[in-house]
Design a protein that fits this description.
GO molecular function: DNA binding
Number of strands: 30
Number of domains: 3
Largest sheet: 5 strands, mixed
Strand content: 15-25%
Structural class: alpha+beta
Distance between the termini: 12 Å
Keywords: Coiled coil, DNA-binding, Restriction system
CATH class of the largest domain: Alpha Beta
Helix content: 40-55%
Pfam family, one: Methylase_S
CATH superfamily of the largest domain: DNA methylase specificity domains
Radius of gyration: 33 Å
Number of helices: 19
InterPro entries: Restrct_endonuc_typeI_TRD, Restrct_endonuc_typeI_TRD_sf, Type-I_RE_S_subunit
Protein name: Type I restriction modification DNA specificity domain-containing protein
Length: 544
């Protein structure tokens, strides 16, 4: 108990942490470790008193007893009301599975009613004050049922209704040896639920807990005089947990709003202070970046600055971008003349939304490179050894396994990939499959759905072009065709995407600055992973 109160502020950072703490509280409660006046002496008891069948049970205080639910309460299953007897409205509502959640009675959820004469004939199934409602059916193996809710008769006064129990919803009605509030609390403990679901039956998909099984559920029973103290302490600590959850929601909401505002300022096209805003973010990085979503926003901001010339300094003595563009135009025309390159029609219109320095040029990707699509390897050509085949998953996940080619038929050179080649994923799931990458894992063959960039000049830095493409990735994805989960960009769409072309010296400056800032982002992600790992270990240690 002291661990909880002492470490609470350090342990709780997310709503998931709050839920874990609630389970920790329940774990203490059902073991008699939550209140100070519980006997510290434990007894080793592996069987329920009066039961011939052995159960695997945990230790409880010497003053407590292991019993079954039928020892301390009456259980009653609901009545099988016929749907053709339901009416639109009355003062007699039927409570079904969907109306009962943990500590919530959802009386407005798909209400069904019965006429007065049926209600009078089924008065044994009317729900009474302090009855514990329990759901008995759900998805097998998922524990999405055995929800418990304590019925408060005040709802009858508030709604002017009486409530009746439908089948597959049960009533647990406590006797004089136990307070119903305690039963309702204890039945939400994972320690108890682990015992409950050992009795689960049903089909492949549907799980059930029958009347006999529920009656046999083991229950740790404290002395009656201790029960109220346990109930009060659990409610007190749960109130604290709920307050922490509200504080976390508030903090996350306003932190996200603040960070998005700051990053919007950096990304603003008409903002003259973008670089200063980026410096502000870097200087206050530990306060502003709290999760990987924030780091992703920072990466986008860095790319946005880079492709607008905000991370580089122009040198008047450098060759202009116009000269570089002319050089690439000559190479492109030579390839077309030699029939080494098919002509791609490029739109003449230019975007007016992105400002670039005067010595840069707005160009289409098709002015800079020829995108070569990969080979459509058949699954029958895959092998466990040979030359790696680069698929989409090998671009965005360095740990993804390769398929290999070890066939006798030579693979054309255009599908060969070497370290340093620029590759672009253009088909798959938006957010994971699209993007530009520099290949760094040796000689390989290129699979379909990936472009290899054949640059028209050695004075075009492939790493700069990678960053430029990734900076306009949202434009690329917005043009993609296909269904909700799987989209693709055509070659014609891709070559007409517009980017800024700086002189070669500025390209290298931009690459240097972006790489330096991205390294900082990578370090931050590693720190977050380490913090989350330590946090998880800490939470697990106090919940044991």
């Amino acid at each position: 108990m002291k661990n909880l109160t002492h470490y609470l502020s350090n342990a709780v950072h997310t709503e998931e942490d709050v839920n874990k703490l609630k389970q920790y509280i329940l774990n203490l409660a059902v073991r008699g470790k939550l209140i100070d006046n519980s006997s510290s002496e434990l007894k080793h008891q592996n069987t329920i008193e009066g039961d011939n069948e052995e159960e695997t049970l945990y230790e409880i205080p010497k003053s407590w007893r292991w019993v079954t639910l039928e020892d301390i309460l009456m259980f009653k299953n609901g009545y099988a009301f016929k749907s053709d007897t339901y009416i639109k409205n009355s003062n007699y509502q039927v409570i079904r599975l969907g109306n009962v959640k943990n500590d919530k009675l959802l009386v407005e959820n798909k209400e069904v009613y019965i006429p007065k004469e049926i209600a009078l004939s089924c008065k044994d199934f009317r729900i009474k004050d302090k009855d514990i409602l329990v759901t008995m059916t759900g998805t097998k193996g998922k524990r999405d049922y055995f929800y418990t809710c304590l019925f408060d008769s005040k709802i009858e006064e508030k709604t002017n209704k009486q409530f009746f129990l439908n089948q597959r919803v049960g009533i647990l009605r406590a006797n004089n040896s136990v307070k119903p509030e305690l039963v309702n609390i204890f039945l939400k403990s994972k320690s108890i639920l682990d015992l409950v679901f050992t009795f689960e039956t049903g089909t492949a998909n549907q799980g059930n807990l029958g009347t006999r099984a529920i009656k046999r559920i083991p229950f740790p029973l404290p002395p009656y005089e201790e029960q109220e103290s346990i109930i009060t302490k659990v409610k007190e600590l749960f109130t604290l947990c709920d307050k922490l959850a509200i504080d976390i929601q508030y903090k996350n909401k306003h932190s996200t709003k603040l960070n998005k505002t700051i990053f919007s300022e950096v990304l603003g096209h008409n903002n003259d202070n973008m670089h200063e805003n980026l410096n502000f973010i870097v200087d206050n990085i530990n306060d502003l970046l709290e999760n990987k979503e924030d780091i992703s926003l920072l990466r986008k901001a860095i790319l946005s600055l880079g492709i607008r010339g905000k991370l580089s300094v122009s040198n008047p003595s450098d060759d202009s971008a116009s000269k570089l563009l002319e050089e690439m135009k000559e190479e492109k025309n030579r390839l077309i003349k030699n029939k080494s390159l098919r002509v791609s029609k490029l739109n003449k219109e230019h975007s007016v939304t992105t400002d670039i320095p005067e010595n840069w040029k707005k160009v289409k990707i098709g002015d800079l490179m020829e995108p070569i699509n990969g080979k459509s390897f058949k699954t029958s050509e895959w092998s466990n050894e040979g030359v790696p085949i680069i698929r989409i998953q090998n671009l965005n996940n360095k740990h993804a396994p390769f398929n290999y080619y070890n066939g006798e038929t030579a693979i054309p050179e255009k599908y060969h990939v070497s370290t340093g080649d620029l590759l672009i994923g253009w088909s798959g799931t938006p957010g994971t499959s699209f993007g530009a990458f520099i290949w760094d894992r040796g000689f390989s063959y290129l699979n379909q759905h990936i472009f290899k960039a054949k640059l028209f000049s050695s004075n075009l830095d492939p790493v700069y072009l990678k960053h430029a493409i990734n900076a306009v990735l949202e434009i690329m994805i917005s043009q993609a065709r296909g269904g909700v989960g799987l989209k693709h960009v055509t070659k014609s769409q891709f070559v007409n995407i517009e980017v800024g072309l700086p002189p070669i010296s500025e390209q290298k400056q931009i690459v240097h600055e972006i790489n330096k800032l991205f390294l900082l982002c990578n370090q931050l992600e590693e720190q977050l992973d380490q913090q989350n790992d330590l946090q998880e270990k800490f939470m697990n240690s106090i919940i044991q």
